[in-house]
Amino acid sequence: MVRTLDDIGDVRGKRVLVRADLNVPMADGVVGDDTRLRAAVPTIAELADAGAVVVVLSHFGRPTRGPDPSLSLRPVADALALVLGRPVTFVADQDAAGAGAAVGALQPGSVAVLENLRFHPGEEGNSADFIAALASLGDLYVNDAFSAAHRAHASTEGIAHVLPSYAGRSMQAELAALGKALDNSEHPVAAVVGGAKVSSKLDVLTHLVTKVDHLIIGGGMANTFLAARGVNVGKSLCEHDLKATVLDILARADAAHCIVHLPYDVVVATEFKANAPHRLCNVHEVRADEMILDIGDAAVEALGDVLKTCKTLVWNGPLGAFEYEPFDRATVALAKTAAALTQAGTLVSVAGGGDTVAALNHAGVADRFTYVSTAGGAFLEWMEGKALPGVVALETGDSA
What we know:
Layout: E1 15-19, E2 26-27, E3 30-31, H1 35-49, E4 53-57, H2 74-84, E5 89-91, H3 96-104, E6 111-114, H4 121-125, H5 128-135, E7 140-143, E8 165-167, H6 169-183, E9 189-193, H7 202-208, E10 214-217, H8 219-228, H9 243-255, E11 259-261, E12 265-269, E13 278-282, E14 291-295, H10 297-308, E15 312-316, H11 329-343, E16 348-352, H12 354-363, E17 371-373, H13 377-383, H14 389-396
């Protein structure tokens, strides 16, 4: 059981360490996408409004040799202040004493951001000394970064065993949505799994066939499944060496009474580029010099009919090469169907992963799904059925 801000009690005058994910795209000091900053606002604002001293912890990028000015969180702190609509103090001191003095000078209701935690080797090493240094800065700990929950780092896992620990609003919403999608889902459940390679999602597929009623395979992965079933996929992206693995997944699905849906008509072209000359054909009519770049209209219509029979949908990965028109049509069409069913109240739809979010935004329906997760690796590991260290720590951490 994870405790939330509803369980935290009076925080007036207390120092609350909030692990957020401020790892946003940045170019020339300007944030390219502030989605993660906006996701952190409810928790930070709620605590600050209640009189807490809010100290935000985060990583930024992948520094390899200690402090790197190009990966400082200073400009991100400025961007966070704009999104929050209140001042944000940036704490540049990287030693416990200096940071402690800076935090100690803050007044109730203040918000501060510490410098990039990955400047310290103890962060990724989850070292006891660094955990103690972080813990000395706060009275309470709130994890609001589901997207980093798959990492057992000092600020995501270790500190939860030292301070009284809670889930922030974003983490709370994510866990509730994911629980409803697979762990406590209403059946029938469908999963859309796309992307380039089966090899990158073997654990996902193996886990999902035991959890869902319908598994819809798209992207380059569908080519590998088709080839394993003896279909000639021409020069399509395909992992021919995974035939035995795919057949094993199909056998597991059959044993679990999970129906695997593969396209029976596809869009093919001889070039992989936007608006390349293309044609629609049956999967058994792909020529040797052609590649499959999208699912066909009849298959998409059939998949839409499948979703109409379902109560829950989990989506990870596009159906085709959605970055290039017109090979985005299947993804857009099925996404719109899922969004319409969600809005009609007949489908709980949860999606996640970078390409998936981009595809749903491209289709203009991201805000019409029940929940769209911006987490990448954490969402994928959740789909694999793995325990996430950052979540487990909240369940088993300090409860003083």
